[in-house]
Design a protein that fits this description.
The complex is a heterodimer of chains A (about 350) and B (about 160).
Chain A (H helix, E strand, L loop, with lengths): L1 H16 L1 H26 L4 H36 L1 H12 L1 E2 L5 E3 L4 E3 L1 H31 L1 H21 L3 H43 L4 H11 L5 H17 L2 H26 L8 H45 L6
Antiparallel strand pairs in A: 1-2, 2-3
Chain B lengths: L1 H7 L1 H9 L9 H10 L1 E5 L4 E3 L4 E2 L1 E16 L2 E8 L4 E2 L8 E2 L3 E14 H10 L1 H28 L1
Antiparallel strand pairs in B: 1-8, 2-8, 3-7, 4-5, 4-6, 4-8
Classes of the chains: A mainly alpha (about 350), B alpha+beta (about 160).
Chain lengths: ~350, ~160
Amino acid sequence: MAVIVLVLVALGWMFWFFRETTIYILITLLAVIILKPIVNYLEHNKIRKSAAFLAIIILFLCLVGITVFYAIPSISAEVKSISDDWPMIQQRINDEVFQKRATGTYYFPALNLDVSQDFLHSIKDDLTTWVNSFAFWAIQLIIGVIFIVPFMVYILLKEGNEIKKRFFSLIPNKYFEVILCMFEEITISIEHFVSAKIIQSAIVALISSIGFLIIGIKFPIVLGIIVGILNIIPYFGPIIGAVPPIAVGYLLHDFRTAFLAFIVILVGQAVDNLYTTPVLLPKLVNEHPLIVIISILVGAELAGPVGMVIALPIYSVFRIILTHSYKALDALHSDESLG
Amino acid sequence: MEWIYFFNKKNNLVDALKQTQICSGFTKHQIRKIAEIAHVRSFRDQELIFRKGDPSHGLYIVLTGKVEVFLQKKDQSQVLANYEPFQYFGELALLKDNTRKASAKAIGATKLCYLYREDLRRLFLAHPTIGRDTYEFFLGLLVERLDFANEQLMKK
């Protein structure tokens, strides 16, 4: 048992140390999970495997191409206009949220709080550096995705089964069946989790974007996507996701728009919780709420927002490995089953 | 050692599977699909393949060597069956998630082909004819056994 825990910790550290490569591998696996049902469907309909792969790689490249050449410029334009609008936002903060005092400090009437001017400047600096570094990181990632990921996806889709078999041929006979079964369970739980979360966040993003377009708030698409992505995080996600639209609505428009944005988010949550979640429930990872919250907090502490998103699937993988190896060790050491 | 290279070549595994009862009705193309998901495992003399009470997830086909299925009670072991090349055992695992009802060990250096239940299920989804034929084969087998058991009960 201790050996298994040590191996898990070592693996975790390795993936953390080679973060950049891990991100490419994760994106590749994500693409494989999304594309695999399509390959199976094509194969089921008696289309040659090589033709199916070719069609899918072309489809994948087209999707990435559309994203890069259409969506990214418009999204980055929306992001850029945030920094263009910053003086206006600051003006509004000065007028409505914080009141300037004769002594030069700022006063926050709602909370009866004094705020220094440095704090406001630091928010602006943080936002600018964050946007710049994020844009740089995103460009790097997209180049990697275009040149490396399709190649890896193709190999994994075509040779995945062969690679899996090679890996399992290395495992000693004693543990072979247990590890095969464990691997299967992990794959299925991750596949279900990913597909369910993609459907869920896509629906929420769509509803939010349409709602934001209707109420005429600024940056509707970006805000909708943010709400959708943050919705992946259980419990905390919808709350964190509600902050940007409401803040934008209040700071760039007025109280009414902020309230309407809040209503849009409520509608999105209602659809998600009353319709999408019950349908997808068997596919979502069923962990105890307390464990979900703790794993999200740990994930947030280790890797920030990304950590919050991937904390739960990683916890599930560890739980499956540990329960299976515990069962296997139990069977190995119990005397009744000997012989 | 040469057996390892022998069975790692896909065609040889296909030829071996062709001689088993399960695959006897399949075309070469269908058997190649089954060979794609088959794990070839080699066992030393007297090495345990599985033990009574182990969770069972798949079916074994003997490729070379011999397998003895036995039950151990205290110090004496009772041999239930012997399996020669191209025979299969542990087939009930394909139909139900269960535990092994007896233990199995290799007699002499043995090569087995392991078919994992979930892999087979996926294969059956993509190729329904293989699935239908395989399930029909095993259901026929179960009916035969049930008939046999009924007759035994009638005699008593």
